Amino acid sequence: MQEFATIIIDFDSTLVQVESLEDLAALALADADDRTERIQAIADLTNQAMTGTMGFDEALARRIPLLGARRDHLSALVEVLKQKYTPSLLRNEAWFRANSERLYVVSGGFREFIVPVMEPLGFKQEHIFANTFLFDDEGNITGADPTNFLAQDDGKTALLRHLDLPRPRLIIGDGFSDYQLRASGECEQFYALTENIHRAEVVDRADRILTSFDELLM
User: Fold this and answer.
1) CA dist 116 to 52, 60, 125, 176, 196, Å?
2) Quick one: angle between helices 155-163 and 176-183, nearest 10?
3) How far apart are CA 52 and CA 200, in angstroms?
4) Within 10 Å of residue 100's Cβ, how many Cβ atoms?
5) Residue 155, C-beta contacts closer than 8 angstroms, at least 6 positions apart
6) Considering the domain 6-217 in this protein, what is its CATH number?
7) Is beta strand 133-135 parallel, antiparallel or unpaired with respect to 141-144?
8) Could you tell me the mean pLDDT of each successive run of 10 residues in the chain, 218 residues long?
């Protein structure tokens, strides 16, 4: 791994075992009669975005109204996600801490929960790039900041061009937006992590398949 000056890692289904918006919906919709249907709809939209059959911007815009979430649900979500770290991430925590200067989290998720979930493991706040929520006066989540690169289709590519991080770069993730960094030339290599989910459409495009983070250090 020493050959990469910059290592970029996705969050959902990569650093944690789940898709965080689904867990946020599970909290926010705990008493809703249509809870199951709405969570399934969110999951379906996520999968379409992650396999490249729907633009990420469209999928995000359609998921937010289904959440029914508020600002005060976010602290509970952080505690839930801290129980769902990817197991091999925890096994190799010392390595991640030791390499924090060249590690970046780039995610279509949201800073409001990603930062407090990842900082305890030594990830630097200033190296975490994600969407930010919009709220109304009552604290309801109403959307994502549309000016953020990551709220847009192929936003990870636009963000990397803007940041101009040191090369060579590696992207590790589970979704089509991670592969796009390789396809655009913004990363030299794309490793697909399958520890939490295996998306054939993504794995087939990977330079290397990781069944766990352990394989990075072998």
Assistant:
1) 29, 22, 9, 25, 21
2) 50
3) 11
4) 13
5) 56, 57, 108, 148, 149, 177
6) 3.40.50.1000
7) antiparallel
8) 95 98 96 94 92 90 94 98 98 97 97 98 98 97 96 95 98 96 98 97 96 93
